[in-house]
Amino acid sequence: MLLLAGVLALAGCGKEKPAALVMEGVTVDLPKLKEAFATASPELKASVSEVGMGVRYNDYSRAFTALAKLDSAPDLTEPQKKIVSEVADQVKQLAAKAAAPPAK
Questions:
Q1: Rounded to an integer, what distance in angstroms lies between the CA atom of residue 54 and that of residue 66?
Q2: In sequence order, what are the residues at sequence separation of 6 or more whose Cβ sits closer than 8 angstroms to the Cβ of residue 16?
Q3: What span, in angstroms and rounded, lies between the C-alpha atoms of 42 and 63?
């Protein structure tokens, strides 16, 4: 009985992936970006953090600068290149919506 309780307790401890950030109706998949660079150099991890900070604080030039640093890194894998491109497109959409005049 005690063993069963332990197994059930451990089954409930599974970590869920963090959800993508949704702002202005645009989904920005920052968790996937972080995951893709989880084992990267400290410099690349810092750029990933800068992307997140830029998006969260509506500082899109900060996010774009960090994404450009990531994109120009010499040893990126194909999955890393893909997620950098996807997040850049998502940030572009978000920046365009933020710059658009409010609907009347």
A1: 9
A2: none
A3: 17
pLDDT for res 84: 97
* Rounded Cα–Cα distance for residues 80 and 101 (Å): 34
Task: Extract the tokens encoding 81.
Answer: 């290149």
Q: What is the CA radius of gyration of the chain?
A: 18
Dihedral Cα 23, 26, 32, 34, nearest 10 deg: -40
How far is the C-alpha of 79 from the C-alpha of 93, rounded, in Å?
A: 21
Residues lower than pLDDT 50 in the chain: 1-12
Strand partners, 26: 23
pLDDT in tens, 81-100: 999 999 999 999 999 988 77
Q: Give the C-alpha separation, 41 to 61, whole Å.
A: 23
Q: What is the rounded CA–CA span in Å between residue 27 and residue 78?
A: 22
84, 33 Cβ separation under 8 angstroms: yes
